[in-house]
Amino acid sequence: MSDELTKSDMILTHIANSNLAERIVDVDEEMISLLVFQLGDYLFAFHGDQVREILPFAGTSWIPGATASIPGVINVRGDVVALIALGQAFGDRNTGAAGAFSVLLRHGDGRSGILVDNIVDVAAVPVSGIMEILPTLEERFKRFASGQFEYKQTMVTILDAALILAKVEL
Length: 170
Prior knowledge:
The protein is α+β, with helices and mostly antiparallel strands and 170 residues long. Helices cover 21% and strands 38% of the residues. The chain has helices at 2-22, 86-89, 139-142, 161-167, and strands at residues 31-39, 42-47, 51-56, 72-76, 79-85, 101-105, 112-116, 118-126, 145-151, 154-159. The strands form 2 sheets. It has a 5-stranded mixed β-sheet. The protein is elongated, with a radius of gyration of 23 Å.
């Protein structure tokens, strides 16, 4: 039995020595902070520097004549913030205007927000992990997308807040 242990030890030593040559060297790589959120069955993200604040959704004040993608406005410490129902902006007519969270965006005057169903994570992603938009991404998402990355074995589409605000009629 001591021979088997010795053989096992020799095999493990050989494997460890062969792995030394194949080890990957850790390199300091720039990381990007991304707010990952859920909208329906999809995962999306905003760059962390595009997000000003996250608030629980507490309802809106209706705006007469507003489009379906803008369910209303909220009062945030005296500032009026227009909220965008992203599902409606994507052309999903089955999506309601209510979300669980309001993500306030840092763009322009900073008085716009997006309704999302759930905040999933704030992920630090290496720059090399950001991919170009895959051709399989639905067309309705492509016009707002700036890239994609893999998060827990699921593709997440990175949205550009500036594109959303420019293309949605406020």
